[in-house]
Amino acid sequence: MDDIIYQLALSLIKGIGPSIWKSLMNKYKSAECIFNLSNSNLSEVIKNSNICNSILNKDTLTEAELIVAKHKKVGVKIISYCDNDYPYRLKEIYDSPCFLYCIGNNILNNTRMLGVIGTREPTNYGIKNCREFIKELAKYDITTISGLAYGIDVLAHQESLNNNIPTLAVVAGGVDIIYPSVHREVYDRIIKNGGCIISEFGIGTKHDKFRFPLRNRIIAGLSDGILIIEAGEKSGTEITALCGNEYNRDVFAIPGNINSLKSLGCNKLIKANKASLVTNAHDIAEMLNWNATFKKIENKENIQLDKESLKIYNIIKQNNNITFDEIYQKIDIDSNILSSILLKLEISNYIRLTHGNKYII
């Protein structure tokens, strides 16, 4: 039985929330191991007898098996917090979900992720800026993130697709439910063009109102930066921006007419120093230290690196989201030389060092 089944079964037990679940997984590494602990060993780490009994009796295993089978049948991948392809950016935030449900190509660890969000009822000014910014941002080899909602969200996905930019949509319900239904064409295009739709909720989950703020925090957590095109006051967009501030993400806002209700949110965030004022795509690239000559390495013939640098690059490529110590353990090289090579690779934009001091391609 796959460990993902045991992991899900553990999360289904009443009284085990994300914090306890992560703590247990960090301690034991395997959920199957937890389910096979003796009563005395369990009691040492879990003081709640009801939780211990549920683990010992394996009460939720059957339900977890059905959940995994149901998602596999419709082509939805369940990504665990413990998996290597879980988004490293989400691991940097304190309230990351234990599981993500993904349909399409897993691009969650792409380099240069930009959230693009805004009002559901944009003005011509907002529509124009959304199109122009995304068209200009295409040269920086970015991936866009939005929420597939009406207005700026769906426009951000459409313009990304029109400019050959990978895009992913974070939704507030099951990834099998297209909401709103009129966005089916965009939903299909995102998947067809190598993007994905993700959610922290399993298939069949309705897009209830209370889930949208939860969705917004994931958009913020996945992003290196968040661009607010146009937003009113006290909107979901503002929630995403404030999450970005809390998660130490760069937040950008396009200023608007001081007399326009649709620009109140952007102007307010700028005025409160909760968002940086931007007037073009270059402003964003400059603040995020992106350049327009990012090197995409497809095969060895295209790599202009010496033997040692290429070896280190390939280690990072095969073990994306890897620490210095982990690289050092995999290669016979002096630590000072390794530091020097990693710095050169980073400066040359072959690799990137994340907020969590891990290297990625």
Written description of the protein model:
- The chain is 43% helix and 11% strand.
- With 361 residues, the protein is α/β, with parallel strands linked by helices.
- It has a 9-stranded mixed beta sheet with strand order 1-2-6-5-4-3-7-8-9, with helices on both faces. The protein has a two-stranded antiparallel ribbon with strand order 10-11.
- Strand 5 (167-170), helix 9 and strand 6 (196-199) form a beta-alpha-beta unit.
- The two termini are 32 Å apart.
- The model is unreliable at 297-302 (pLDDT under 50).
By DSSP, the count of extended strands is 11
- Report how far the terminal alpha carbons are from each other: 32 Å
CATH class of the largest domain: Alpha Beta
In CATH terms, what is the architecture of the largest domain? 3-Layer(aba) Sandwich
Keywords:
Rossmann fold, alpha/beta, 43% helix, two-stranded antiparallel ribbon, Arc Repressor Mutant, subunit A, 11 strands
Write a compact overview of the structure shown.
This protein is α/β, with parallel strands linked by helices and 361 residues long. The protein contains 16 helices and eleven strands. About 2% of the residues have low confidence.
